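Quick question, first post here. What does this chain look like in 3D?
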Amino acid sequence: MKHFLFNLVVVGFALFLCSCRHSENPETVLFRDFNLGATVEKMNVAQLRPQTGGSGASTAIGETTERRRGFDLEYLLDESNGERFDEIGFLNELKAKLAEKIANAGVRTDGAGSTNDNFYYNYSKDKKKGSIEVIGTRVEGNKYKLWCVMRESAGIDSAK
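> Answer (accepted):
Ran it through. Tokens below.
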């Protein structure tokens, strides 16, 4: 019984230390608060009708804290008025909205790039480095799909 109690105390102490380590490296406001679906909804694009969507997140704690969030959204395209959905224009507007969110979150943009169907930003703040990549494409003729992956590492020197 004493051995069991000793092991229980050791495990409890180890879990306490792990939770303390995690709280030393909180995520940036950008990582915590960004929501791709809400951003697109606020853009009020008349031709996009939300269909399905999902998101997920994971955290790995070690020498650094590694975080990942993903978004997978699908929209029905309403082109009934004969006007074709401007995919490039939409992604450019979304890219500008994300640039605003990055600036408002107080993180520094370290790099950015884009092609016709995707864009990315690299950012940092203090000992945190992150990236956001967004991909958009027409699927099945009348649907538009958006994917977004955010990654953030905490506890590293962002000057490296």
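Strands lie at 48-61, 65-77, 108-114, 118-125, 128-139, 143-154.
The helical segments are 2-24, 29-33, 36-43, 87-104.
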